[in-house]
Amino acid sequence: MRVTKRRGRRPAARTVAALLAGVLAATGLAACGGDDGESGSGPIELTVDIFGEFGYDQLYKQYEASHPNIKIKQRKVSSLDDYKPRIQQWMSTNSGAGDVVALEEGILPVYMQQPGKFVNLFDHGGRELQGNFLPWKWQMGLTPDGKQLIGLGSDIGPLGMCYRKDLFKKAGLPTERDEVSKLWPTWDAFLKTGQDFMGKVPDTKWLDGPTAIFRATVLQNAGAGPGYSFFDKNNNLVFDTNPAVKQAFDTSLKFSQNKMTSDMAIFTPPWQTALKRDTFAAVPCPSWMLGGIEEFSGDYGKGKWEVAAVPGGSGYWGGSWLAVPKQSKHQKEAAELAKFLTSPQGQVGAYKDKNTFPSSPQAAKDPAVGDSKSEYFSNAPVGKIFGDMAAQVKPVHLGPKNEDVRLAVENVLIAVGQGKVKPEEAWTKAVEEAKKAAR
Predict the structure, then answer these.
(1) What is the DSSP string of 48-82?
(2) Are β-strands 151-164 and 316-323 bridged in parallel, bridged antiparallel, or unpaired?
(3) Residue 299 gets which letter from DSSP?
(4) What's the rounded Cα separation, in Å, for the pair 53 and 287?
(5) Which of 282, 332, 376, 390 could form a disulfide with 8 if both were Cys (CB 3.0 to 4.6 A apart)?
(6) 184/217 Cα distance (integer angstroms)
(7) pTM of the model as a whole
């Protein structure tokens, strides 16, 4: 999931154009014309469906400039939870989807079971692109039999911890990122730091809500453990028997039980509004969330936010692929656009624009990524912070009903903070809701 905005230093359009000129030549992307590649029928409009921001605005302009017979229309919603029912409807009715659609890691498994609804990108030169992606990212875009390439990787979500320097100073805590990182080598230490903080600044909650903690710790624990979370690798529900899940739930529950969160779900209107106030002091943040914080904090938050290491020392959250639905009337052109947007140079351009950390090793090594700093986040060396974390990512298997289960369980955690569910009954309630959601 992502809602992002440009970092403090915006590249000029001509800089992005120069950066990407090579990829157009290298991939042989020539101007397209006509319906499904047939010339003479006028401009082709390609619709791209995304949630939040992927950093593609400048890339669209560059592509259109080099492909005068292509016009790109982007449709976006602010959150994954809003996007999911829309794409479900489009795919189930075989109507309404864009020519290129974003598939987030949590919903990708659903469509791996419906490969016939998507174009095989192997038929459009996709096989030659394997070296452009991290091995696990490439593998997750393939059907289990390896015969169909459904999606090309866009970003990944290495984790950091975003925090308000000014509020930390008010509480008498260290404010510099290295010293702050030392405060919480573990989640228990993070909890203790939050209790100390709220003892000094009682009108500000430590966290926005329990959902970010739960999402981060589930993937962190599962990556370090069995390699799966709510569902095993045969897609059997193991929510109530997987220690990685129980540990993450218990960790998240402590924050709700101790009234340390604002009981908000990320990217909802209350969350967006809270960023312009002193509502909470910290939030686990994948690289793509930095843009969302900047988007909704605006001038109020500039220079107040920083990025430290996440407790536990590793982790990721989120990441997407681009796919072409078979219902597209312009499959060839759509595939070429998806290849362009996910190319190493395209991923560098997207990162410079919206902080979406690349799944391309070549892009991650580019100085524009690796040496980057965020002016908005107190000049934090975000390229190094997230690059170091990305190198430690251990992918986790997610079942087709993963997002349904996740949302149901997060609602239980929020209900605890709101006093609607007793802490001692929370796990039993979560198991019950998980089983319902998995049906």
Answers:
(1) EEEES--S-HHHHHHHHHH-TTEEEEEEEES-HHH
(2) antiparallel
(3) G
(4) 12
(5) 376
(6) 14
(7) 0.85
